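Hey,
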Amino acid sequence: MSEKVVLPKFDIPSESAHPVVKAVAIVGALLLVSMLVLGGAIYKRRAAQLAAEQQRDALIAARTAEANAAIEAAKARVAEAAAKEAAAKAEAAAKIEAAKVAAAAAKAHPADGSNAAVADASSGHHHGHHGKTAAKGKGKGGKGDAVAAKGSGDDKKSAAKGGRDNAAIDKLLAQFK
């Protein structure tokens, strides 16, 4: 009995964790924080990309609308120019036709009361109401007077002012009745 009794050593665990477990927890927390920061950065970058794409699409749409408006304006100018040209051609054709009708009427019934066939056969000149244009040097002879009458607006102006012989017109109208 003289032997000593050796009791085993019992370590009573403390309330704090082992330092390795603490290190693992700290590394895990840092990893989680870094993932959150990286996720936030990726989200911001993606949002900026989407905003840039929307801005680009809006700019493309605006430029497309500008180009379409410019095209439509050009088409309108071309159509307007074509309409003006057509109106000018129609006006020129109407003036030419009016000059032809006036020349034909003057040739058929000259203002001096003589017979047109005798006047044309005898002199080869047309001495009707176009005498002013022939005197100005714009034409000599029947065909030249008709061309001069086309280019001259004096006949139409004088007709509007009553420069024609109304008695001859009344006489002509009486023949058709």
